[in-house]
């Protein structure tokens, strides 16, 4: 169907960015492999969009080097770099038809007319909008506009595709659909892709690797599974999914004190003498009938969230509330209800340890 | 961490172009103004004398008469105009009166006429041989009464347009909330309508005040012995050839205008958009009593404006007022009077077209550089200041500055003095600020990533400019073009010092014919100017209609 584009490899070495006194990015090092889809994920203001704009050449880094393939692009203006970009607003040219929008970049490089027609038809086919070719952007739905923006960016077969929050302006349903569509398109074309998002679900669902950013630094790089199961910092643990935190003091070896009770942990404890923050995901806490577990508690609140029940349990021994996700069947077996007493088990292999 | 020495290589040329833009504006506004300021502290021989000129003007009684006269006449006109314009805007936006489109059309008519027209018309209505002289109970129209009435006529549309913009976008939810809380119509008016329009009111007041205090046409024709700053400058310079005193009065005129300008900027900065994407447009409900009230507040203004225009039209056709009331075209045979005749009219047409073309290109190109190309922050700040500065400089002051600056023997551009070119340059500068604001507003509304997308698609900013930006800005471009044309056609204040033997102008001809006592031909020329502007407005309206129709598909998303 479509030609296979060879995605390029991108290396980022020691990139810094300052806006006046404010340091927006600090010492960013990252290598992105050809054909990979990488998500920059983080709260607003973490620097992810700035990093994307530096890769595009729309902002200039204060220091550092960028390599695309073997090509040093650090100082090249955007038009000498090889990338396609889709913005949150799509920035489709409203005075041009879908066809003219997609053909815009091909005209720039002097592609022969016949070839342009061919390529546009091919792309329209690919995004499934062939019958809308002569319409203007304002006559299309949000999802359709998004696809046109994607086709426009892909038309000159760039080695690198940059997506700046491409789905956040869309309804939830369209968003879910487009997620898988973009992903399969990207795999099919093999184009190296960087997507900026603040939506963790989106990042986990689409990315080969996720780059979690906070306050201008990279907190962790890893596959979605690694990021979720082995968060390397308290920030990542809390930002991705839900997490309970429990303060504790180191005791000896692999044991820590929570309140006046010793707890065994499997994962390595943080270095240094300070306290330890234990963390456990709501779905990893086991609820047991009263009298069966190591921790006693009382059910304070229950929220029915469809597939599971988010339960808030107050521990009896230590002043602490834990959030626990329970499936409805177990809840029935436990006769879970607000005010009831319950026992909890915290599996030691599910306990994460962070420096306090 | 070593900072990068080199810059991305494409930034330089655009910054250089904007620096050039700054240089042009400095040459056309800042440098002449500086010359004027330095002239005000020099004596005739060009020696520095400090504030001596000011002291002389003060001791001659000029402050008490002209300065204070200017202030109170402008103040009174402001109160009347803003009051009437607010009532009119209320009636047009909060009632369900029929024909509001036509009423709006009539109310903004004065903008197409030179400010001399109402003054001439008032002479015919209330002057010594006026048809309604008795209505003044023996008071003189020549003086403050005439100036205030004439000023009200031609500044009214400016206030109305600002207030309509402020009140058109009312949030219906506020009115629903007020009525759900059982507020009376009167209380709703004071707690919802008036606060919603407060920035518009302040802005309109500053605009009207500045327009009146800097206007020269009305007081010149109907001011009689009543001195104001604007006529005083003219007298000092044209009458007595005392240029340094003209400069002194100019500085005095610059002060209130500058003050109003900065106060307005300050207030506008505090304004935030109250009409958001979530607001629901207000729709007036049927209310008989309110409609009647609306008609009542609109009627006097509509009648006044129509009466002034009708009187001028009628007077221009009357053979010899008041003795021979037969209608004829005698007054349109300008060749027989002073002032340059039909040649002046065609000069004005050239001036208007030249200003329109040069001004629109310059304004849009500079605004595009500022808004849509990568620029150092400092540079855009400087440029924004230079672009808005003309708003604070009265036309007469600008004109006088041009004499000092361009007529100086050492000035390399000395050759353009007395030509049509200097008139075009002066008029472009005079009306630069409003055009600039219109262009910037239009450019800001475009998606800020167009250029970034263009670059990623290997298209230069120039290609994006011509294929995307300009087509999208076409309506705003047409608006700026019309604004410049109409103002160049009607303006008197700046050009009155600058025309030469071969570049006499229609608006100035109105003035000279009136001065020579040929008041009917003056009225005829004023009408001719008005009709020309109305023609330009019709052409522009037709073009906008055509643009809207041919671009409807991509503007509204329906075929």
From TrEMBL, chain A:
Pfam families: ABC_tran, TOBE_2. One of its GO terms (molecular function) is transmembrane transporter activity. SUPFAM superfamilies: MOP-like, P-loop containing nucleoside triphosphate hydrolases. SMART domains: AAA. GO terms for biological process: quaternary ammonium group transport. Residues 10-240 form the ABC transporter domain. Keywords: ATP-binding, Cell inner membrane, Cell membrane, Membrane, Nucleotide-binding, Translocase, Transport. GO terms for cellular component: ATP-binding cassette (ABC) transporter complex. InterPro entries: AAA+_ATPase (IPR003593), ABC_SmlMolc_Importer (IPR050093), ABC_transporter-like_ATP-bd (IPR003439), ABC_transporter-like_CS (IPR017871), AminoethylPonate_ABC_PhnT2 (IPR017666), Mo/tungstate-bd_C_term_dom (IPR008995), NA-bd_OB-fold (IPR012340), P-loop_NTPase (IPR027417). This is Iron(III) transport system ATP-binding protein. It comes from Marinobacter mobilis.
From TrEMBL, chain B:
Its main location: membrane. The chain crosses the membrane at residues 12-34, 71-93, 105-126, 141-167, 188-213, 245-263, 292-323, 343-369, 381-404, 416-443, 464-486, 519-539. Residues 67-264, 345-540 form the ABC transmembrane type-1 domain. GO terms for biological process: transmembrane transport. It is found in: Cell membrane. The keyword S-adenosyl-L-methionine does not apply. Pfam families: BPD_transp_1. Keywords: Membrane, Transmembrane, Transmembrane helix, Transport. It is a multi-pass membrane protein. SUPFAM superfamilies: MetI-like. The keyword Transport applies. One of its GO terms (cellular component) is plasma membrane. CDD domains: TM_PBP2 (cd06261). Belongs to the binding-protein-dependent transport system permease family. This is Iron(III) transport system permease protein. The lineage of its organism: Bacteria, Pseudomonadati, Pseudomonadota, Gammaproteobacteria, Pseudomonadales.
């Amino acid at each position: 169907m479509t030609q296979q584009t060879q995605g390029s490899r991108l290396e980022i070495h020691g990139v810094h960015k300052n806006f006046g006194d404010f340091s927006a990015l600090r010492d960013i090092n990252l290598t992105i492999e050809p054909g990979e889809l990488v998500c920059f994920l983080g709260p607003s203001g973490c620097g992810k969009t700035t990093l994307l704009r530096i890769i595009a050449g729309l902002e200039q880094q204060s220091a550092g080097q960028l390599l695309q393939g073997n090509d040093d692009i650090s100082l090249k203006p955007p038009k000498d770099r090889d990338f396609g970009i889709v913005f949150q607003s799509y920035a489709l040219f409203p005075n041009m038809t879908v066809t003219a929008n997609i053909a815009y970049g091909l005209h720039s490089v002097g592609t022969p007319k016949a070839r342009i027609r061919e390529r546009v038809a091919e792309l329209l086919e690919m995004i499934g909008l062939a019958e809308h070719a002569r319409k203007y952007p304002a006559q299309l739905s949000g999802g359709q506009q998004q696809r046109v923006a994607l086709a426009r960016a892909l038309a000159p077969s760039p080695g690198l595709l940059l997506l700046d929050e491409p789905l956040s302006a869309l309804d939830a349903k369209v968003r879910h659909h487009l997620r898988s569509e973009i992903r399969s398109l990207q795999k099919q074309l093999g184009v190296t892709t960087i997507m900026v998002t603040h939506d963790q679900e989106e990042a986990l669902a689409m990315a080969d690797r996720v780059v979690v950013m906070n306050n201008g630094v990279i907190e962790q790089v890893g596959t979605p599974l690694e990021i979720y199961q082995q968060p390397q910092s308290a920030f990542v643990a809390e930002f991705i999914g839900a997490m309970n935190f429990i303060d504790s003091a180191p005791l000896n070896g692999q044991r820590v004190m929570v309140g006046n009770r010793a707890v065994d942990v499997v994962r390595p404890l943080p270095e240094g003498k300070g306290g330890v923050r234990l963390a456990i995901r709501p779905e990893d806490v086991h609820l047991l009938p009263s009298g069966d577990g190591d921790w006693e508690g009382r059910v304070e609140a229950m929220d029915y969230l469809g597939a599971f029940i988010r339960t808030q349990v107050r521990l009896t021994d230590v002043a602490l509330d834990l959030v626990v996700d329970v499936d409805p069947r177990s809840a029935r077996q436990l006769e879970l209800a607000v005010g009831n007493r319950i026992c909890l088990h915290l599996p030691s292999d599910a306990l994460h340890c962070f420096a306090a | 961490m070593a900072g990068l020495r080199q810059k991305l290589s494409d930034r330089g040329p655009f910054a250089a172009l904007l620096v050039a833009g700054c240089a042009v504006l400095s040459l056309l506004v800042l440098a002449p103004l500086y010359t004027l300021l330095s002239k005000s502290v020099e004596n005739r021989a060009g020696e520095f004398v400090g504030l001596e000129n000011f002291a002389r003007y003060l001791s001659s009684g000029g402050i008490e008469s002209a300065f204070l006269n200017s202030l109170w006449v402008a103040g009174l006109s402001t109160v009347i105009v803003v009051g009437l314009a607010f009532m009119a805007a209320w009636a047009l936006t909060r009632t369900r009166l029929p024909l509001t489109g036509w009423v709006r059309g009539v109310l903004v008519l004065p903008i197409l006429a030179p400010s001399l027209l109402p003054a001439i018309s008032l002479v015919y209505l209330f002057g010594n041989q006026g048809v309604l002289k008795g209505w003044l109970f023996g008071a003189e129209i020549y003086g403050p009464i005439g100036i205030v009435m004439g000023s009200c006529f031609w500044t009214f549309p400016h206030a109305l347009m600002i207030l309509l913009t402020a009140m058109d976008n009312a949030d219906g939810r506020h009115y629903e909330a007020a009525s759900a809380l059982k507020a009376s119509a009167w209380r709703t008016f004071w707690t919802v309508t008036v606060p919603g329009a407060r920035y518009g009111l302040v802005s309109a007041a500053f605009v009207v005040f500045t327009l009146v205090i800097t206007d020269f046409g009305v007081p010149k024709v109907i001011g009689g012995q009543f001195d104001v700053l604007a006529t005083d400058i003219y007298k000092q310079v044209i009458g007595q050839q005392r240029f340094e005193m003209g400069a002194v009065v100019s500085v005095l005129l610059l002060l209130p205008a500058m003050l109003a300008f900065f106060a307005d900027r300050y207030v506008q900065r505090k304004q935030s958009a109250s009409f958001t994407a979530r607001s629901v447009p207000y729709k007036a409900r049927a209310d008989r009593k309110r409609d009647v009230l609306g008609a009542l507040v609109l009627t006097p203004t509509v009648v006044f404006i129509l009466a002034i225009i009708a009187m001028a039209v009628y007077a221009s056709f009357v053979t010899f007022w008041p003795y021979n009331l037969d209608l004829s075209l005698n007054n349109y045979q300008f060749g027989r009077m002073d002032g340059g005749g039909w040649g002046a009219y065609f000069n004005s047409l050239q001036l208007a077209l030249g200003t329109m073309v040069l001004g629109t290109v310059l304004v849009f190109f500079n605004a595009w550089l500022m808004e849509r190309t990568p620029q150092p922050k400092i540079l855009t700040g400087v440029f924004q200041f230079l672009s808005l500065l003309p708003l604070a400089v009265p036309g007469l002051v600008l004109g006088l500055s041009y004499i000092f600056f361009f007529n100086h023997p050492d000035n390399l551009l000395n050759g353009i003095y007395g030509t049509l070119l200097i008139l075009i340059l002066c008029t472009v500068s005079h009306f630069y600020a409003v055009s600039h604001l219109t262009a910037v507003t239009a450019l800001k509304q475009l998606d800020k990533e167009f250029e970034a997308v263009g670059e990623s698609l290997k298209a230069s900013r120039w290609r994006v400019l011509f294929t995307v930006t300009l087509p999208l800005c076409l309506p705003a471009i047409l608006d700026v073009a019309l604004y410049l044309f109409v103002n160049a056609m009607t303006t008197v204040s700046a050009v009155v010092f600058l025309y030469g033997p071969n570049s006499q102008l229609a608006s100035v001809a109105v003035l000279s014919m009136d001065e020579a006592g040929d008041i009917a031909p003056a009225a005829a020329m004023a009408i001719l100017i008005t009709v020309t502007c109305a023609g330009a407005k019709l052409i522009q309206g037709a073009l906008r209609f055509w643009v809207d129709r041919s671009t409807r598909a991509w503007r509204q998303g329906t075929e």
